[in-house]
Amino acid sequence: MKPIKVGLLGIGTVGAGTFEVLRRNQAEIKRRAGRGIEIVMVADLNTARALQVTGGSCEVVADGNLVVNHPDIDIVIELIGGYGIAKDLVLKAIHNGKHVVTANKALLATHGNAIFQAAQDKGVIVAFEAAVAGGIPIIKALREGLTANRIEWIAGIINGTTNFILSEMRDKGLDFATALAQAQQLGYAEADPTFDIEGIDAAHKATIMSAIAFGIPVQFDKAHVEGITKLQAVDIRYAEELGYRIKLLGITRRAVVNGVEGIELRVHPTLIPAKRLIANVEGAMNAVLVHGDAVGATLYYGKGAGAEPTASAVIADLVDITRLATADPEHRVPHLAFQPNAMTEIAILPMSEITTSYYLRMRVSDRPGVLADVTRILADATISIVAMLQKEPAPGERDTDIIMLTHQTQEKNVEAAIVKIEALSTVIGALTRLRVEELS
């Protein structure tokens, strides 16, 4: 059988890794796919680099349109990134009846609905395992391995840069700025790390997983997103004293508010009990915890980025498409796991309606009655306390920290209580609020 012909858009770090792994493991991949898979054309503005990587084994061009319009190319791999030219080229490839493999989580989280509809209309496949958690096969697990389950919730460490920074802050007592500079020096963080440290990258990935888990459209614009830039080393230390670790989590969960089902979709720093396996994921590694009603909790762990781990996912998609290319489109695995006519419009809940537990830290004057005032405000907001730390003032100081963990309550109750607590004359500055997830 003739090899399936592939065009590659972008041959940067992941593109070069894909080319190398496909070349190195060609025989093994052919045994799995049932036919050869060959990259026959590469488009990259840096044609000199592309020629160096490919060694002249395929045609190199600067214009991606030549790839997506080529009549002999069966599959297009999009590794350009971003929302602009990548979107245009992906839609052109689909219009031309070509299958698409992409690692572009930003594109799918923002324009996925239109892309998947176009692919459905043309009877082609858009595969995107590499878009979430690099080499970890979490998309396949959600779409296929757990298909018998009603997924209840997902919680993931899905950005290696922020996990590395938080690990350094905990292990070495570094402040955020120092840990970020170290991550940049080691190549874990970009020169402009905004997408990572502000939680945007994690929110793109959480949005995609939420759509697959619950059969809803991708809705990145409705996600609640907080990064780690305001996180202080003192809160990491206090969390440790209370038996918790702080991780940037992407969380999506079914919830019922006032008798109506909704979906939580949020990214923020989160306290997790230190005894949980996911709390012990360190450095630049990723992990995703999925809870299904039949299987319970399952954990997926591995490298979430890098040339060859991501290439592993890209090539797995190539093999899947090669196996399924001749199948009736109606009998393929749907892009978002559920049949297109069975998608639902369950609303994404506003943060004010979510229910979780909270970590509260406040700087207070060391005077009688302070704690009583704070606990009265919390009680009036129907917020009960699970645990508390009260630190002795440092020598020569009159101020100290009070740290509290609450039982579960709605976010709007905590917000209202914080306003009243910060108004107390004995409370100094702003209160620090972090969310707590037991993940049990």
- Count of strand segments: 17
Based on Cα principal axes, name the global outline: elongated
Write out the CATH superfamily name of the largest domain: Dihydrodipicolinate Reductase, domain 2
In CATH, the topology of the largest domain is named: Dihydrodipicolinate Reductase, domain 2
Strand content: 25-35%
Q: How many independent structural domains?
A: 3
Measured on Cα atoms, how large is the radius of gyration? Answer: 24 Å
Give the low-confidence spans: none
Written overview of the protein:
This protein is α/β, with parallel strands linked by helices and 440 residues long. The protein folds into three domains: 4-127, Rossmann fold; 139-303, Dihydrodipicolinate Reductase, domain 2, CATH 3.30.360.10; 354-436, 2-Layer Sandwich (Alpha-Beta Plaits), CATH 3.30.70. 37% of the residues lie in helices and 26% in strands. The protein has 15 helices and 17 strands. Strand 9 and strand 10 form a beta hairpin.
Protein topology:
Blueprint: E1 4-9, H1 13-24, H2 26-33, E2 37-43, H3 47-54, E3 59-61, H4 65-68, E4 75-78, H5 85-95, E5 99-102, H6 105-122, E6 126-127, H7 138-145, E7 151-157, H8 160-172, H9 176-185, H10 194-197, H11 200-214, E8 224-225, H12 233-241, E9 244-257, E10 260-273, E11 285-292, E12 296-303, H13 307-324, E13 355-365, H14 370-380, E14 385-390, E15 399-406, E16 409-410, H15 411-422, E17 427-436
Parallel strand pairs: 1-2, 1-4, 2-3, 4-5, 5-6, 8-10, 10-17
Antiparallel strand pairs: 7-9, 7-11, 9-10, 11-12, 13-15, 13-16, 13-17, 14-15
